[in-house]
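Internal tracking record. Fields below are filled automatically when a chain is submitted to the structure queue. Please do not edit lines marked as system-generated. If the sequence contains nonstandard residues, flag them in the REMARKS field before resubmitting.
Queue: standard
Priority: normal
Entity type: single polypeptide chain
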Amino acid sequence: MGKLMRMSRVAQRDADTEEMDSVKRYKRYGWRRAFDVLMEAQTYWNNMDSYRRDRERNKRYTYGDQWKDEICVDGCRMTEEEYIMKQGNVPLKNNMIRRLVRNVLGVYRSQSKEPTCYARDRDEQKLSETMTTILQCNMQRNRMQELYARTMEEFLIGGFVVHRKLYGWRHDSLDCWTDYVQPNNFFIDNCMRDFRGWDVSCLGEVHDISFQELAGEFAQSPEDWHRLREMYKNTHDRQVIANYGERFGYSRLQNYDFLFTADPTRCRVIEVWRRESKPRWRCHDWNSGEVYKIDTEDYHELVEIENERRLQEASEMGMPSDEVPLIEAEWFIDNYWYFYYLSPWGDVLREGETPYEHKSHPYVFKAYPFLDGEIHSFVADVIDQQRYTNRLIMLYDWIMRASAKGLLLFPEDCKPEGMSMEEIADEWSRFNGMILFKAKPGVPVPQQVTNNCTNIGISELLNIQLKFFEEITGVNGALQGKPGFSGQSAALYNQQTQNATTSLLDLLDSFSQFVKDAALKDVKNMQQFYDRRRSFAISGKNAYVEYDPEKIKDVEFDLSIMESTSTPAYRMMANEILLQLYQQRAISVEMLLEHGDFPFGDQLLQSIKAQREQLEQGQQPEGISPELMQQAQQGANMAAVNKLYDAMRGSAAGGSE
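SYSTEM-GENERATED OUTPUT FOLLOWS
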C-alpha cells in the first residue's frame, strides 16, 4: 500500500498536472474548445490561399488554359482572353509546358526505382529481405506505380504533394492503404521551416464524404446515427440532385470554402492533427535496456512498486542493493500528436492520441524547394516564356491577317463597259479568266498586290523563346527523344542526355525522398497492424515470403531507393550471374530457380521437387512434360533451357544417390 498523503497536497498536484496538460486544460471550455481548434485550422487553411491560387494558375498553364490572367483596361478588369476577343482576335496558344511535364514524367518512369529495406542490425538482414518483399506486395496492391506517377505530375505543377497512410477495411480486405490527398483540401501550419517537415505542429485535411461514409466511420450505435443525421440535415437524402458540384473531368477553385462544401449532398468533416503537451516520465529499464515513457498517474505502479519488488527479490537472493538494475525515471513535458475529427459547427466526432506506434500523424508530405517556407514549382519557372511565346504567335497571326494578300488595284479608267466591279473581281479570281478593256495612255494597268510582312524577326524571337524553355528547365532535345544532327556521335548524344538528367537530379531526388518517407511509414504500419502470420507473393516474380510478427515487429529498418528489379535489363543480368554461379557449382539448381526470373522457373522447380519425391518413394521419375519444354523454348534462350534441363537431371540423379 502506498504512502498516505494529505488531500490538499494531492489536489494541488492534480491541479498542476491538469494545467500542464494542454488537452485537459482546454476541456474546461466545453464546446468552445473544439471551436477554437476549428478556428486555428481555418487560419492555417486561409494562410495557404496564395499557394492554392498559384497552383491553380500553374495547372491552367500546364493544361492549355493560358489566357485567364486578369488585366485592367481603362479601369475595367477582365481576363486576357476577353480583351483579345473584344479586339476581334482569336486567343491562340502553343502549349510548350505540357510537353516539358510529359518529358520529365517519362524520365521519372524510366528510372524504375523502388524502395528497399535494410535492417540496422546485420544479423537481421534476412528479415529485411522479407520486409522488402512485403512492402513491394503492398505497393502493388495500392497501384503505387501509377499513384507515384500522378503524384510526380502534381509535384511538377504545384511543388507540394501529400499522401495519407492508414490501416483499415477497403475492397473487402483489412490492410495498409495509401490515399492521395488533394493539396487544396490540405492545410499545414505556417510556422514550419524545416525542409523535412519535422517542425510541423498542426496539419489536417478537409473531407467531403457522403452520409453513408460518415455513418460507417463515426456511428457506433443507433443513437450516434440519429445524432449525425440531425447534425448533417438533408445530406442523408440521396434523392437530392447535386447541381452545385464540379463538372465531371473538370475542377474549379471558385467558391472554395473551409467550413462548407458547395455540394449539398456531401458532409464536410475537418480532420486536425495537433501537437499537444502533458507531463510524463521517461524511463530507462537497466534490466532490459528498454527506454520508454509513461503517464504521471502510472508512475507509482510501474516505477516505484516495480523497483521495490526488484529490491525485495534481490534481498531474498542475497544480491547487494547497489547491484540491482532498477528503473530510472526522468520527469519531462512530452509533445505528442493528438487528432480531432470535427464538424463545421464545432462538434467533436472523434478525438484521441495518435493510435500509431510510430507516434506521428498519418500524412507524408513534401514541399519544394521550401526555402524560407516558400514553394516554387517546376512549371512556375517557365510561365513567362510560355506567355511570351503565345504573344509572339498572336502577333504573327495579327500581322499576317492585317497584311495585303492578293489585293487588286483596278483603275477606274480601265473599267470595261457592261461589267460591274463585282463581275470584274469574280472574273479576276476565276481560273483562265479574261477581262477585256481599252488601255489608255498614262493609265496604269490593273495589278495585284501581295505584301510579305512576316519576315520582321518574329521567327527569330520565337526560336529564342523555345531555346529558353530548354535552358531554364534543362529538358533539351536529347532528353525529349529528338534525333541528333547528321554525323553526331552516340557518345555525344548520350552525354547530352546525361547532362539533361543531371539538371533534373535535384527535383527527382527530392521526390525520391518523399517516396522513401512514405515507404518507411508503410513499414511501421505493417509492423504494428500485421499481427498474424501471413504469406506474400509479388506478382510476376518468384518471390514468396512468410511474415512472422514475432520476428519482424521490433526490427528497426532503414530504407533506400534502389534500381527496380522489374526491368528486363536487370532480370537478364541477374539470370546470367546465377547461371555462372551454377556452372561454378556455387549454388544448387533449386537456388537458381528460386532466385532467378525465368518464365518457366516455377513449373520447373515443381517438377524437380516432384521427381525428388518419386525417387524417395522408390518410383521411376518421369521426364519433363512436352508442354513445359515448349513453353521454355518460347520464353527463354534455348542454351539456358538446356543448361537448366541438364541441371535438373543432375539434381535428380544426385537425389537418387
